[in-house]
Design brief:
The protein has about 55 residues and is mostly helical. It is about 55% helix and about 0% strand.
Length: about 55
């Protein structure tokens, strides 16, 4: 991401959400997760954490 000139804050934000996603599914590797798990995670964020789609 640094090669593509992403800001440090953007990189940190991406890493935070990737880590949160992995921990949410009990440390399962993302390659083991499919569409249903992604949808479940996004639903959790929207309903339980009140995270908007633009965040």
């Amino acid at each position: 991401m640094r090669v593509h000139r992403y800001s440090r804050r953007t990189i940190d934000s991406y890493l935070y959400w990737i880590k949160f996603f992995i921990l949410f599914w009990n440390k399962r590797h993302p390659s083991e997760l499919g569409d249903a798990e992604i949808e479940g995670f996004l639903t959790f964020l929207a309903t339980e954490r009140n995270v908007s789609a633009g965040s």
